Amino acid sequence: MKADPKRVLTGAHYLDGDHAAAEGALAAGCTFVAGYPITPSTEVVERMAERFPRVGGVFIQMEDELGSMAAVVGAAWGGSKAMTVTSGPGFSLMMENIGLACMMEAPCVVVNVQRGGPSTGLPTLPGQADMMQAKWGSHGDYELIALSPNSPQECFWATIKAFNLSERFRVPVLVMMDECVGHMTEKVVIPEADQIELYPRRYTKLSPEEYLPFKTGKDLVPEMIKAGDGYKIHVTGLTHDERGYPVMTWEAQEKLVRRLIEKIRLFKDELVDVEEEQTDNADVVVVSYGISSRVSIPAIQKARKEGIKVGYLRLIIAWPFPEKKIYELAQKIKGFVVVEMNYGQMVLEVERATKGKTKTILVPHGGGWVHEPEDIYKAIKEAAK
Amino acid sequence: MAKNEVTIEKKEKEEIVESLLTPGHKACTGCGLALAARTVMNTAGKDIIVTAATGCLEVFSTSYPHSAWKMPWIHSLFENSAAVAAGIEVALKALGREKEAKIIAQGGDGATADIGIGCLSGMFERGHNILYVCYDNEAYMNTGVQRSGLTPFEAWTSTSPSGKVSWGNPTEKKNMPAIAAAHGIPYVATASVAYLKDLEKKVKKALEIVGPKYLQIHAPCPLGWAHEPYDTIKVAKLAVQTGLIPIYEMENGVITSVRKITKKAPVEEYLKLQGRFKHLFKKPGFEKELERIQAMADATIKKFNLM
User: Fold this and answer.
1) Residue-by-residue pLDDT tens, chain A, 385 positions
2) N or C: which end of chain B has fewer CB within 10 A?
3) Are B186 and B213 in contact (CB under 8 A)?
């Protein structure tokens, strides 16, 4: 399925990451956004408030982030491609409803333009410290998908990809931007609509009599119904069976939770999305994402000039984590350098995935500013020893 | 001349020492909010503990590495000013020190009427001895003018833009004083920065009453409302004189005083001073919209017997 030309702002633009994400959402067919003002993400909803009346769609400003995420769950079940946008404190408030979206298998997109935390932290300055919260923030066991773009251009594509993955897997998909990427302005090229491939909602072909809302085939993802088409439907955050009815037994829990996990884990290899450069014969591989990946480049270039073989690996999809990829590299290299704007989050995944085959050095940063390339360079030298 | 200058400087210094919200903060020229907060604090006096929700007031008064607040002061979160204040009040009681300080919880219109309404309702319901002050500048100004539950009908904001298919904010101002009063609390009042003596009187009165109190202060924002900074008081006065913002007190659920309109002004006079309403004077069909807003003002005048 191709994008609707009416919703695609084809052409070359000068946009920041927030505005580019908004255009990505429109191109992806998003027709509903619920949001609440929070720096540094507000520009996304402001653009939606302005653009929706022109191309079709509804933006509502909610009373808080609990309401925003809940409205998105409702809208997804009501038949919309739905999105909300926030930053740190709002992301924390959304957690319960993100869990609800996982449990109800509501396809939706959550954009988090990360700022410095904890708490109110640094509203106008960058952070990358919500990466573990993205994966583990809501209670209980579940799997979801998180992307991390590193430029306004990629914010456009990542948001489209987020919608496509959310439809395919019926999970909330998180777009983990950071304030730098959200507020930096660069050239963004939006192609013709026929160049944008969309994954349509998985509507059932079964009749109301045959249909069971949570019965699945091989890929473990159930089919949805169109609201108002005469299907009797019961959706709940309680543990439920294929009919959607609550079942309070360990067997039902095992069957449901296992499926919610496996529907992502089965396709983990397919979900690997990394940017790789010169990792083939590398001695050191720098792993990073978002703005930190761009700050790493001068450090990598400096080390290469000195003859150190440095590879570059950037996580575009951070969750599920590309553990196989990391393990393959771990067997061949002297060490990983992980650059992230926190005191050690995705580095724990890198360490886990290496299974002790090589060393891992973290270049941490508390947020509020980007890394000094010099610090990254020093870590590369250390790892090359 | 030189001697005179010295005297002025000395006088200013004394005022700086006296004010509990000190000058030198980063509010914009003509900020109604700063005037309101300073008046509340100075009227309450120094024996107070203050909580503040996230918002413009918090941001401009505490820019790194300064604080304009001369009392124990907590910036909580966006939604929880009333709940943090409740904790403080209970702690003082537990220590037997509740007579030593009055507690003031503050929030902007978004923090009060939207995200913080749950915590505020709990504070009212449990009967904490706290004065809650809502500084109402009618939008989320700190994040760049997004609509709130207290944004007036058909005002432009960045999330309720006016345009071909929109007249701006589609909803009417949420009646927060009525919601507060519905909790059965002993004192609810509205005030305006246009009438500072009235505001002082209400703060004093509220702090003498035991139990939860709610005070909502109408405070123009030159940046968000797009009016001239020197027009802040003029705009605030016209809001009252048109009947759009009624000024009154409610004690135990009953209206006990209203500020009468001395010289009724048509709503256009108020709206035309503000860029956020400029579409109401341009877009085809605007006369009908102005009539609707005038009808709202007239209904409020009738309801509160303002004339």
Assistant:
1) 999 999 999 999 999 999 999 999 999 999 999 999 999 999 999 999 999 999 999 999 999 999 999 999 999 999 999 999 999 999 999 999 999 999 999 999 999 999 999 999 999 999 999 999 999 999 999 999 999 999 999 999 999 999 999 999 999 999 999 999 999 999 999 999 999 999 999 999 999 999 999 999 999 999 999 888 899 899 999 999 999 999 999 999 999 999 999 999 999 999 999 999 999 999 999 999 999 999 999 999 999 999 999 999 999 999 999 999 999 999 999 999 999 999 999 999 999 999 999 999 999 999 999 999 999 999 999 999 9
2) N
3) yes
Count CA within 13 A, CB hemisphere, residue B275. Answer: 12
Chain A to chain B, count of Cβ pairs less than 8 Å apart?
52
Q: How far apart are CA A383 and CA B10, in angstroms?
A: 63
Tell me the two tokens of residue A57: 């769609």
For residue A93, list chain B residues with Cβ-Cβ distance below 8 A. 79
Tell whether A95 is within 8 A of chain B (Cβ). Answer: no
By DSSP bridging, strand A317-319 and strand A310-315 are unpaired
User: Please, are residues A292 and A376 in contact by the beta-carbon 8 Å criterion?
Assistant: no
Range A5-195 classified under CATH 3.40.50.1010: no
CA-based nearest residue in chain A for residue B115: A64
Q: Which of residues 43-62 of B touch A (CB under 8 A)?
A: 54
Q: Please name the amino acid found at residue A19.
A: H
Handedness of CA B59, A118, A73, B120 (dihedral sign): negative
ipTM for the complex shown: 0.90
Q: Which chain A residue is nearest to residue B58, measuring alpha carbons?
A: A120
A61 vs B contacts (CB less than 8 Å)? 146-147, 159-160
Dihedral angle sign, alpha carbons of residues A286, A289, A291, A292: negative
Q: Look at residue A192 and give its three-state secondary structure.
A: coil
- Phi and psi of A222, rounded to 5°? -75, 160
Place of tokens 């573990």: A132
Q: Mind listing the domains of chain B with CATH numbers?
A: 3-304 (3.40.50.970)
User: Would you call B143 and A39 a contact, using CB atoms and an 8 Å cutoff?
Assistant: yes
Interface of A with B in 118-137 (CB under 8 A): 119-120
Residue A59: list chain B partners with CB under 8 A: 159
> Tokens representing A95?
């957690």
To the nearest 10°, report the CA torsion of A121, A122, A124, A128: -90
Where in chain A is CATH 3.40.50.970?
5-195
Determine the 3-state secondary structure of B50 from DSSP: strand
* Architecture of domain A276-383 in this structure: 3-Layer(aba) Sandwich (3.40)
